[in-house]
Amino acid sequence: MTKIIMFHGEECPHCQAMHPIVDKLIQEGFEIDKLEVWHNQENENVMNNYAEIITLSCGGNMGVPSFLDIEGNRATCGVMSYDDLKS
Fold first, then answer.
1. What is the per-residue pLDDT across 2-12, written as a single tens digit (0 to 9) for each?
2. What is the spatial distance between Cα 29 and Cα 79, in angstroms, rounded to a whole number?
3. At 67, which CATH number?
4. Is pTM beyond 0.85 here?
């Protein structure tokens, strides 16, 4: 199964809206790591290491929430439905 990284900001309302969906997917067996990037420089550095993939997939932006599929070299960003994120 593909490993996903969710980059999020602690106070981000869009990120907060996605946490229950991500938690549900984790409970279903999906491997998703949550990395907070607004207050954690190390996590921000991880996100910056994937800047090319994230910006290409997310309209040139490095915003949160961003979801990175490392193995597939792809990302998606923003608030989305459970089904959209799962796919």
1. 789 999 999 99
2. 21
3. 3.40.30.10
4. yes
